[in-house]
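Predict the holo structure. Ligand: adenosine-5'-diphosphate.
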Amino acid sequence: MGWRLNFILRQLVSPEELVIPLSNAEFRLLAVFIEHPNRALTREYLLDATQGRDMDVFDRSIDILVSRLRQKLNDDPRTPSMIKTIRGEGYLFDAKVSR
Amino acid sequence: MKSLVPDTLFLRLFLLLFCILSVSFFAGREIFITLGLEHTNAVPRQFNPFRLNIFLIRFFAVAVTAWIAAIWLSKPIKHLAQAADQLGKNLNSPPIDETSGPSEVRQASKVFNQMQARVQQQLEERNRFLAAVSHDLRTPLTRLRLRAEKIGTQELKSAVREDINEMTSIIDTTLEYLRGDQQPEATCLLDIVALVDSLAQDARENGKDISVSGNAHPVKLQPLAIRRCLNNLIENAFRYGERATIVIGETESEVVIAIHDAGPGIPEDKLEAVFAPFYRLEASRSRHTGGVGLGLAIARDMAVKQGGNITLKNSPQGGLIATLILPKRP
Ligand SMILES: Nc1ncnc2c1ncn2[C@@H]1O[C@H](COP(=O)(O)OP(=O)(O)O)[C@@H](O)[C@H]1O
Ligand SMILES: [Mg+2]
């Protein structure tokens, strides 16, 4: 079994059964990726979809959020296998999603 | 005079037995003769230095016998004292064994167990009562919230709304505290650093000043319970100490999470008292900060159920340090 996301408790369960809690922002970002797997998503779109209240609105915040999420998913930022960077466009969630 | 009598039952018994045994062993014959119970023509014994080592051996034998007998006699009472002590620390500890030991001890055990059951029952009753009242208050409060929306002046409306919110949160925490007794959440291997980090991110999103440093291996825990525990400690740091500086560390057997704040700390003689349910320091009560005094009680309850604990101390640099200690379990 691969990675699992518990929507109620907002935590990831790794293939090794390690429970990894997500912050609200990380959870919102991952939820958007899960809704649209294998599709390039622009920074603006991701920003729009993940904005929490009082969050600073600027481009870099999405990059920071993505790097945090990669860290929690144990996805090497230099050669990511799940959240891939699309140069000049945004990000792509490369995964098979099942419910 | 009091200081001459040994403190423990064991030592008293030992002394008594030792005296009795010595007298009967060394002077028994002389006593019998004096009482006229034994007739003898033998010459009275005289001190003989060659008999000294025999004397020492006898002396030693008497001491050992008295020692063993004293242990045997005082053991049931000692067990009873230990069990009673356990009961005092934790009301939910298993009942004392009523079937072993002499009848006096069995009877005392029985009384202790009855007392424990009665106190438990009373606590349960109190909790049921509190839960019922808290629950019943919710309905009129919801009605009130709807009615408050009809208030004309904006200022009054928001003031009333605030009061209602405060009452709701008091009821919620009270119910949460009462529920704490009954939650068999599953344990799992938890990335505790990710948990602290997530809580910090969420707080930062709400404009709070919080930092996290350090590292630790994952631990087997109940995630929700620990989240609630940490939440209460962090909330206190914000409420009473403006900011939270969290340091995660670990030893061979424990993970240690220390939460520093920049507030006034807590008077040394109140560091334990603040853990009591509904207890709040005078300053917090008059400052009207909105808590009920259950945060630390809930947090410690949760930590203890994970086999850990929470301790408070004042930092020499100012501010309070709340430390959550969690055991590493296989
Ligand atoms: N970080 C802190 N700094 C100073 N005082 C504190 C701190 N945390 C708790 N206290 C004191 O301990 C009391 C009990 O805390 P708690 O059980 O969390 O209840 P509450 O926060 O609802 O009052 C508080 O009312 C406050 O007086
Ligand atoms: Mg509190």
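Chain A has a mean pLDDT of 85. The interface with chain B takes residues 9, 11, 17-26, 52-55, 68, 72 of chain A (CB under 8 Å).
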